[in-house]
């Protein structure tokens, strides 16, 4: 469950062992007391919720970094450590 990015108070984590629950590459985004799970493929919310503005930032970040996220997912599933990914600035 490494944190792979952080921006605007949002932590992005990769829970690759959670595949049985969500069945596809995904990230967990945490902001204050909120947590949401987003599909890497299309940025859709699979579970949970974030404030609307923070959710929009996460979806934009996924769009920008989709290829890196999928590469990190592959590494993690193969037992390798995922690389950090630059946050929004």
Helix content: 25-40%
Sequence of secondary-structure elements: EEHEEEH
What percentage of amino acids are in beta strands?
Answer: 25-35%
Largest sheet: 5 strands, antiparallel
Spans of at least 5 consecutive residues with low confidence: none
- The gyration radius over C-alpha positions equals 12 Å
Oligomer: single chain
Strand arrangement, major sheet = 1-2-3-4-5
* Tertiary shape: globular
> Given the structure, what is the number of helices?
2
Query: How many domains, in number, for the residues?
Result: 1
Kindly state the mean pLDDT as a whole number?
A: 91
Q: Report the strand count.
A: 5
Structural class, judged by helices and strands?
alpha+beta
State the separation between the terminal residues, measured CA to CA. Answer: 24 Å
Description:
The protein is an alpha+beta fold and 89 residues long. A 5-stranded antiparallel sheet has the order 1-2-3-4-5, with helices on one face. A hairpin with a 2-residue loop joins strand 1 (3-7) and strand 2. The protein has one domain (3-77). The protein is globular and about 35 Å long. The protein has helices at 19-22, 52-77, and strands at 3-7, 10-13, 26-31, 34-39, 45-49. It contains 2 helices and 5 strands; from the N terminus they run ββαβββα.
């Amino acid at each position: 469950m490494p944190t792979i990015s952080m921006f605007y108070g949002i932590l992005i984590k990769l829970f690759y062992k959670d595949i049985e629950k969500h069945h596809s590459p995904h990230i967990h985004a945490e902001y204050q007391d909120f947590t949401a799970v987003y599909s890497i493929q299309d940025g859709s919310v699979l579970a949970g919720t974030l404030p609307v503005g923070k959710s929009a930032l996460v979806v934009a970040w996924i769009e920008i970094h989709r290829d890196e996220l999928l590469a990190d997912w592959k590494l993690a599933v193969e037992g390798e450590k995922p690389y950090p990914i630059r946050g929004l600035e």
